[in-house]
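Dear support,

I submitted the protein below through the web form. The confirmation email said the job was done, but the results page showed an empty box. After a refresh the structure appeared. I'm attaching both so you can tell me whether what I see now is the final result or a partial one.
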Amino acid sequence: MVDEFVYHANGRYESTDVLDAEVRICSAVRLDFAIPSSLDFLFCLLHRLHWPAAFAVHRGMHKHVVVLSQLLCELALLHTDLSMYHAPSLVAACALCLSLACLRCGIWRDGSPGPASSPELYWTASMVQATGYERHELRLTLKLLQEAHEAAVPEMSGHALPAAAEHWGRYGAIMHKFGAPRFLGVVAVRPFAPHNGGSLYSPLATSLLHA
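What the results page shows now:
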């Protein structure tokens, strides 16, 4: 509230001074001071892809893909190499790609998921068109995001959160948020590993089909 700024200024300014300064600043930057996050780009990307209408191959798991993508975007915020040096739009694209890879939603051959040696194989032509990012442009960011996911999973899926928030650890806030039922249990989804095709391979992923 404006009154709080006046209070913390110890009476040096009136509320009208604060509001006048705000108007001048907004005018100077032409209201161009919002910084879109990877989550903002993720939702824009899903909208451009008409998610999930155009992706029947996801076997009814399109909600899990979206929620896991959100989790990966938030994980990226905890890693400086991702949040500071990689474009948020690229991080969003990689979060969606890695989510598809973790849940094996795509790369179909004869009615079952085909082999994938790396997560970028889940990046389709329509996704290239929607984002402008080619597969090869995702590789470095995908590698870092996959490493972040691999580092987080043991803590997120290994134990319950302590009662006191100050003992939650690095990933406690993400565990607390994504551990809620509406987030479909994605905190325990295993990181991507190269595979030779076939159905989902972890008991957790199988249970997600019935969530």
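Response: this is the final, complete result; the empty box was a page-load delay. The domain at 38-208 is CATH 1.10.472.10 (Cyclin A; domain 1).
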